[in-house]
Each structure stands twice: as structure tokens, then as C-alpha cells.
Amino acid sequence: MTEIRVGVIGCGGIASSTHAPNYLKVPGVTLVACADVDLSRAKAFAKRFNIPSYYQDYREMLDRESLDAVSVCTPNRFHKDPAVAAMKAGAHVLVEKPMAATLSDAVEMWRISKETGRVLIVGFQSRFNPSVVTLRDIVSSGELGSVYYARALHLRRWGIPSSPTFIDVDLSGGGALADIGCYAVDTAMYVLGFPEPETVVGVTYTKFGRNPEYAGVGCWGSKWRVEDFKVEDMAVGFVKFENGLSMIIETSWASYIGKPAVFNVVLLGDRGGAQMEPLEVYRGMTLEEYRRLSYGPLNLVAKPVSSFPRLDVYYLRIARFVESVKLGKPLFSPADEGVKVQAIIDAIYRSAKLGREVEVQKPWKS
Ligand SMILES: NC(=O)c1ccc[n+]([C@@H]2O[C@H](COP(=O)([O-])OP(=O)(O)OC[C@H]3O[C@@H](n4cnc5c(N)ncnc54)[C@H](O)[C@@H]3O)[C@@H](O)[C@H]2O)c1
């Protein structure tokens, strides 16, 4: 495959800020078409990025353009249909995070990817952070021993995305958990090597989005009306895994916390502990250090691993997707992992709704 023909479905914020500009930077890629239910957006997008054809109906685009690859950048509720149609039309797909609005949508997308042999990648650009990759290497090297407890955190002091794409449950499928909690779940699962989840207790809160004192104050984008806010602004999950590991997930768009934002994975193992941001490893002293310093072995040594350069993770995910298309296999964040992340999100929402612990549905086992 010499020249990759790419189409974009959904020509809104993320398509304009990170998909199209990065495709234009990757050699051997041509942006040939785009589609948006709002034709004026498709037209403006095509003009801005010099794309020859634009459509209102992505199905027409798929019929006419014989695309090799498609970015699906629509609201979560509309990830499944365009992704499935694109794969059936022979295109490989990069779908925005979260994989879908529901677990059943994600499973269907994964099924079609297997059936058609098309690559389906969930666009978790966080996978390219050097601290994430290094933490995964540290865990798999055994340096921490057996990891028995994890905290996966993605919290903002104030950052409620105000557009319907995020706060209307019929478009988003969920609030803070679907939007940014998915990064916490994905990153923790990735560094831990995707252990098998068993049960979940989840709780959700809507403390700010429907409070007229707060609605629309100081966040980016336009203001929202309190009655339009139909999702949670915070979610908490407690997950138990088959191997004895347990994990807390905390995510919020708004909360009284000391920093503007926290995105971290904190791990406790029986040989050491570690955190992602900044990446540090905490371990007991070696016998030699212990003898020399005569401290007790439980005096921990903190090992700042390194400070990493900031990488353009949005460019990397597009470049890696293009490579995956050329090779015909996913080089990061494959659909089966997306389904596992979605299963935990699904279990947190189900538990919160039912008010009790629930079993994680595991379609990958059946
Ligand atoms: N990776 C990231 O950093 C990141 C950041 C923001 C958003 N996102 C994800 O990207 C997706 C889109 O978010 P956004 O901020 O760009 O939203 P947006 O509202 O700015 O854009 C969505 C676009 O999709 C169009 N659309 C809706 N239904 C469609 C359909 N059926 N067919 C074709 N077009 C359709 C809308 O008209 C709109 O132009 C969401 O899944 C979101 O979670 C990812």
C-alpha cells in the first residue's frame, strides 16, 4: 500500500484540532473525504484542510471513496454505526475514546473488526506518554513484586465540557467517567497487563453540573443550561480482579482538589510501589543499603525514574495508526482492550444505578 486514502467522520473539535492536521503531516497519506451530519461543518472542514470531497452522509462517502482508513470523531453514541460501516466497506478504523457509549456497541465493533479483518484502534493517545510506557515496563519486569492494589485517577478541579456531545447522555452515554475516566481505566489496565476484572462497586455524583450557581462558569466552550446536564460529573469505582488485585477509580470534571488536574496511576506491590506522574518507584532498601545505613528495611527509598520530554502524543497516535493500516494489524490500543475498558465503565454505571456490587460482563470469555 503506497498511498493511504483517509476519510474523517465527524468534523468537530477533535477532528479539526488533532486528526486532520496530523494526517497532513504523515508522509504517504491523503485526506480524500470527510462527512458530518451538519453539512456546513463538513464543508468548512474540507476547505480548511484542503480535502476534495465532503458529505452529509458517511455511508455515501464510504460507497464512493474506496477509503483505506477512517477516523471516527463523532459523539460516543455514534461511534458504533460509522465504525461498523467503515470496516464493512473495507477501511481500517481509528475510533475516538471512549470506544463506544455502551458495552454492547463496543462488542459489536470488535466482532465486526474480527469478521472483516480490519484494524480497529481506540484512540487513547495517553498510551504514548513515556511515563505510561515506562511504568508498564517496570510492572512487567517484576520490580514491584506482585501488584495488589492500584489507584487510577483522572480528576479536574474545574473542567466541565459544556457541549451536548459530552453532557447530553443520549450523545455521550455518560459524563466524567465516559469522557476522562476512560483514560484512567485504560492506562491502569494497560500498565497492569489487562488483568481479569471480576466485580465492581460504583457510585456517581452530579454535584456541579445541575447546580445553577456553577453551571457554565469558568469552563471552556459555551455555557450550558442546568436542565440540559444529563450526566454525572464525578464517578468512583472499586474493582476486584481474579488475581486478588483491587483498584479504585476516581474521576471528576469538577471537585475541590489542590491541583487544577490529576491524572495518575498509583500502584502498590509487595516488593515496591510506584506512581505515574511524576514517575517514581518506591522500594525497600537492599540488604547492602540496610547494613550500611542501619535503617530498618521498611524505610523506603524513593527513586525518581527520570523526567521525560513532552511528546506530541496526538501526532504519534495518527502516525502509529497509519503504520497499523499499512501492516494490517493494530500497533496500539486494539479493540479487544477497548472492550475490556468499556466493560469496567459499564460495570461502574450499572452498579451506581442498582446501588449494589455487580459482576463485570466479560464478552471476551464467551
Ligand atoms: N482524544 C481526545 O483528546 C479527545 C478530545 C475531545 C473529544 N474526544 C472524543 O472525540 C469525539 C468527538 O468529540 P468532539 O469534541 O470533537 O465533539 P464535537 O461535538 O466538537 O464534534 C462532533 C461532530 O460529529 C458530528 N456528528 C454527530 N453525529 C454524527 C453522525 N452520525 N455522522 C457524522 N457526523 C456526526 C457533529 O455534527 C459534530 O460536528 C468524542 O467521542 C469525544 O470523546 C477525544
- The helix content, as a percent range, equals 25-40%
- Structural class category: alpha/beta
CATH T-level fold name of the largest domain: Dihydrodipicolinate Reductase, domain 2
Please state the average pLDDT score. 93
- CATH architecture descriptor of the largest domain: 2-Layer Sandwich
The CA-CA distance between the termini, in Å, is 35 Å
Total count of strands: 15
Bound molecules: nicotinamide-adenine-dinucleotide
Q: If helices are DSSP runs of H or I spanning 4 or more residues, what is the number of helices?
A: 12
The biggest sheet, with number of strands, parallel, antiparallel or mixed sense and barrel status, is:
9 strands, mixed
CATH first level of the largest domain: Alpha Beta
> Helix and strand succession?
EHEHEHEHEHEHEHHHEEEEEEHEHHE
* Amount of beta strand: 15-25%
Any low-confidence stretches, pLDDT <50, length ≥5?
Answer: none
Number of domains: 2
Dominant shape:
globular
Cα-atom radius of gyration: 21 Å
Strand order of the largest sheet: 14-13-12-11-7-10-9-8-15
**CATH homologous superfamily name of the largest domain?**
Dihydrodipicolinate Reductase, domain 2
Please describe what this structure looks like.
By secondary structure, the chain is an alpha/beta fold. The chain folds into 2 domains: 4-126 and 314-333, Rossmann fold (3-Layer(aba) Sandwich); 142-305, 2-Layer Sandwich (Dihydrodipicolinate Reductase, domain 2). 36% of the residues lie in helices and 23% in strands. The strands form 2 sheets. Strands 14-13-12-11-7-10-9-8-15 form a 9-stranded mixed sheet. A hairpin with a 2-residue loop joins strand 11 (261-269) and strand 12. Residues 9-15, 35-38, 41, 58, 73-76, 78, 82, 96-97, 123, 125, 163, 165, 179 line the site of nicotinamide-adenine-dinucleotide.
